[in-house]
């Protein structure tokens, strides 16, 4: 059977933890950020943050902290993962080194119900509270395993737990908050390292009932700050130390999310809350009874940011705000306010997590994911596509354009555009946003232009060059001109120019002429013939380049391809001598060629008439090149152009499937462009159209700006509230979105309150006394169903539900015998005092065909429970309602009528449909497979998984194979085992076929892919399934044929054995499926992230690893040579 290949299309973007310190050097300031299973280390420099390294972690980072050991200047990084693995890392000689590592888990301990906390003493002792009744103390020394011991800790309901900085290395004082029957208390206890017990040192009884956060204050001040909803308390760590309470109007039912130290002395702290407010807490320091202490404190409002989960003061007023629910930010604190805020955003780091729902939509022939991301005020929709968008600024209807050339004449910006048509040339002057057809110098307009540009750089912008098929025309603003023509009346077919240095190479049939434009001392112009050479065949295409492909330096060589000998030559200047000749791997005529350098790697790229593109890595010093790599970029002859975007050079492939080629981690990336056809393109930077592209499809000429050049592009649509579910309706061109907003005292822009039309409704159910009490205390949140335009994302209509009613699911679907397409929304009435939702309803909406901003409520159906998932099954509605799965048919009266039900569930969380089969994901009973029997009008349970998996989502691989995602961060696959039924009525077992620890919570799965499978891929896959996680990553699981199974397992093992992770655990241990005490070895899955990590290595090191791959038992047709294996891995990387 096929094997599942699991890989990340987009890595985790949620910031779970961040720290600032001296990791890479004692004089360096580093920002260290944890995202999922990796840690990014950045260096603070005058130019901004610079990436130092990315540390892959075998496990999801749970927490981390920096510690400075005795007699050491730089700090070490302590990392703890979700599976209770710990490592202490240091940075030396450009490498991350593990000082010590080990497992922290106790075999018999019961995990803490309400708190995991890690705190580090100044001596390096680590204390972790993870289990009830004890605290684990961890001692470590470089080069040894982690040593630990447990200390008895019998305190109920601990809210926070921290070491106190007393300024003494051998005093281990711990502060913690706990509550009992008499209230909430703050206690200081000292750890006796000899008898390994905690002894009470002092106690502050009956602190604020909502106190929840402790902030240790550095010595010599010492003590702790206690944060509560309406107050802050300072308590000295001495026996009879000072107690300083503080209250402020800014503290009004505040829920703090994180804090950061500003001064090493501990006089200022930055605080953040669930409203995204940034507050500065300032301590007034003075002499007390036992030395320096806090006399008073003040709190100031600084501004608003994303809802922060970690916050770090870096230096010089710059602060990093790490967010789990929104985009992370780099901000600067200002001395004076701007619009009431003392902060300004310097940079934003996109975060698409946590992903609550997502759908795949095709737009302009390109697949894109639309996700429900974030929460509360940072809730948003994110449009994710594997491609680059061009946003249109202006358009001119001009058919037949074959060439566009920007001209900068006596100007600091482009002020003309020369447009070549099939039989003539037009000169368009740019006046603001207008274009005017004009005459310019002695430009020939009676024939098409092959090339045009000002030359000799911006200091000589009075000199212009035009190349047509008959001549090279060199002209100046003064009226002087010089013309060069090929001998014997030959026509120019190809040209390449280094404009700044006046170098021109023209081809006339089989002859190449190397020309040089010069200006004479008296102001005259001349074109010198430097060299000419006749080749054995007609020139198909050519290009001038140099080392680094730097347009500011003279060209040192050119590359050309010949018409019918299907060969390529590298020719040096000025003598036009061939230094390298290669037979091309295609017998199709080459149409375009470029020699370029991207990320310090030189490439030769050749496009062929059938839409294929071949490229080589090129060694410019030796004149040699590597293996040819091939990609398809269309079905008709492509043309390659250099374009600039944000001061970086890329390649634009003009074809019927346009592509922008850029580099990521020194690998070429081919990214689709969201236009259907491009015939020609150029970069333009005028006063009105700055840093944009001009493209033509043969019908019109479009001026547009380009998205950031990256492999995965993310567009954000802020909603200002939590977005829970999304559906797409092609017939009306709209999205349907379920949302929930929490009203704030601050001014907010809520999408649901900003609609063109608004309606409301509430469920008609019997009201009990409990619900009457609830109605006396209105809920803090309001739920809505919104309809948005698919292009602009404008909110057309918002339908608001009643108190305590929350929209939980939505789909767009069509019923049998009804031509209309409806939005169907499931809601639940969720009351604070009820553990189970007893009532909900299914609401059917119709978008008005004429005026899309009008949403009509067609039908309501009250049901006993919450419809947590909805799907269309053969024109009928199937719904997961609490512990049941129910099927409804749509009547002629436009009402839902119950047809049948299945009750064998605890809580059905998700449904997926394939043909007549329904996969049900249960909160505790794993997955079951139902089959709808149309003739009998009922559901039959065909098979089930008898393991106890706590499900979140599922998806069909095939009608008899299911992929499941469960709550303990695992993936698994099951398949119907038809070898024998387990019951007399013919029910089968869903037999587990794969186990895999993902390390992130898979929230949603869809059967689709962002990238079409390449035609020339050496390894084929099927059944692509994409999933979104709470950590903001997009992953993909595909099925690869069984003949590749041993091959992929062997490659994975060779890489895992060669690449040692800093956690010092085996790859199989990391990927082992774990659920409470149950442990399953990883099987049935290939770790695509590990396999493809070899592409980031030095090529010689990668090949050395692949030499170790064991080919025992492989299919005879599979590659065995390391270079060929590497090509297979490169093909795997192209699928996402």
Describe the overall structure.
It is a single chain. The strands form 21 sheets. The chain has an eight-stranded mixed beta sheet with strand order 77-78-79-80-84-83-82-81, with no helix packed on it. The protein has a five-stranded mixed beta sheet with strand order 85-86-87-1-90. Strands 33-59-58-57-56 form a five-stranded mixed beta sheet, with no helix packed on it. Among the domains are: 17-103, Beta Barrel (Thrombin, subunit H), CATH 2.40.10; 106-207, no CATH class; 1041-1133, DNA polymerase, domain 1 (Orthogonal Bundle), CATH 1.10.150.910. The protein is mostly beta strands and 1136 residues long. Helices cover 4% and strands 54% of the residues. The chain has six helices and 90 strands. The mean pLDDT is 89. 46% of the residues are buried.
Quick overview:
The chain is mainly β. It has 6 helices and 90 strands. A hairpin with a 4-residue loop joins β43 and β44 (503-508).
Largest sheet: 8 strands, mixed
Residue stretches low in confidence (pLDDT < 50, at least 5 long) are none
Shape: globular
The number of helical segments is 6
Rg of Cα set: 33 Å
Residues in helix, %: under 10%
Bin the strand percentage: over 45%
List the helices and strands and how they pair.
Layout: E1 3-10, E2 17-21, E3 30-35, E4 38-45, E5 48-56, E6 61-67, E7 76-81, E8 85-92, E9 95-103, E10 117-120, E11 126-129, E12 134-139, E13 147-152, E14 160-164, E15 173-180, E16 183-192, E17 197-207, E18 213-216, E19 224-227, E20 232-235, E21 243-246, E22 256-261, E23 268-273, E24 277-288, E25 291-304, E26 308-315, E27 318-323, E28 328-338, E29 341-349, E30 355-363, E31 366-373, E32 380-385, E33 387-388, E34 390-397, E35 403-407, E36 416-420, E37 425-431, E38 434-438, E39 449-454, E40 463-468, E41 472-476, E42 481-484, E43 494-498, E44 503-508, E45 511-519, E46 525-534, E47 539-545, E48 557-562, E49 567-572, E50 577-583, E51 590-598, E52 601-608, E53 612-619, E54 624-625, E55 629-632, E56 639-645, E57 648-654, E58 659-664, E59 667-673, E60 680-684, E61 692-696, E62 700-706, E63 713-718, E64 722-729, E65 734-742, E66 757-760, H1 769-776, E67 781-789, E68 795-800, E69 805-814, E70 821-829, E71 840-847, E72 855-863, E73 867-873, E74 876-881, E75 884-890, E76 896-902, E77 908-914, E78 917-922, E79 927-933, ...
Parallel strand pairs: 1-90, 33-59, 66-68, 80-84
Antiparallel strand pairs: 1-87, 2-3, 3-4, 4-5, 6-7, 7-8, 8-9, 10-11, 11-12, 12-13, 14-15, 15-16, 16-17, 18-19, 19-20, 20-21, 22-23, 23-24, 24-25, 26-27, 27-28, 28-29, 30-31, 31-32, 32-63, 34-62, 35-36, 36-37, 37-38, 39-40, 40-41, 41-42, 43-44, 44-45, 45-46, 47-48, 48-49, 49-50, 51-52, 52-53, ...
Domain RSE1/DDB1/CPSF1 first beta-propeller: 15-337
Keywords: Cytoplasm, Nucleus
Function: Plays a role in DNA repair. May be a component of an E3 ubiquitin-protein ligase which promotes histone ubiquitination in response to UV irradiation. Histone ubiquitination may be important for subsequent DNA repair.
